[in-house]
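Write out structure tokens for Signal recognition particle receptor FtsY.
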Amino acid sequence: FDKIREGLQKTRDKVARSIESVFNRRDPGFYQELEEILISADVGPVVSKEIVEELKAWEKTNPGATADESLAHLESSLTAIFTPASPWEESSPSKSPMVVLLVGVNGVGKTTTAGKLAARFRDAGNSVILGAADTFRAAAIEQLRKWGERLDIPVVHQKPGADPASVAFDTVRAARARGIDMAIIDTAGRLQNKQNLMNELRKIGAIIHREAPDSPVEVLLVLDATIGQNALSQLDEFVKIAPVSGLVLTKLDGTSRGGVVIALARRHKIPVRFIGVGEKTDDLLPFDPSTFVRSILR
Ligand code: GDP
């Protein structure tokens, strides 16, 4: 909990204090001020308005409510926006490897997330293998190999420019042959060429399905939280080209507008799986809606 609060410090600084003060002052402009605070944290105009209207209606039917009860109501309605995700780490290991495909545009923190995820699952007692299917950037392959070396986790890779689906094939094959619990595959994210990217991701998906038909597959879309509402358009694009099953929001340590997580979660009702709050290995945290909302509001 402390780690999340610390990671969200910039957003907390902006939101928590102002929230406390509007609830305590209770000016005639209370609802307007509250809406502005939410918008300033990038919760988005639509969600902010909805949430404030909801609070207004609730207060009408609960005229004796204290400031604290009102705030608790706000907290629970923000939390309810999130679609809950079933836990992974507690799911029983099966014979087939779980396959995690990381998608998203360059620079959002995909490769870093692959490394951090690998460390997290390894530390939870699973065997892990990494696949460097972002063959477009030589640096991405190199970066993933470094993570592998540092964590002592095998990394399947080919030459820059190789077919990403072939790397995915090798990765899943190796995972099955060695009885590995989890395969994490990094992909390229050239959204400039949508048709190509879609074909590439489809081909990778088909190969995983063919080589490991019983494997649970998670497609995690990695989004950079510091780009605010622009992350929404990346989300919209990616849901059109890939079966995104979960979100990872990175760099929340670097923004005071962490409310964007709420806007993103609400957009397509896709569960948020993890948040990134720094560059270090243990800076990827499992996402829990109520802890998140509490951390930014209080
Ligand atoms: P990719 O191109 O999507 O694979 O992105 P990278 O994994 O190379 O990450 C781009 C930069 O973002 C690197 O400098 C990372 O260290 C940094 N980064 C990734 N996640 C986080 C995070 O949660 N917080 C911060 N502050 N930096 C991050």
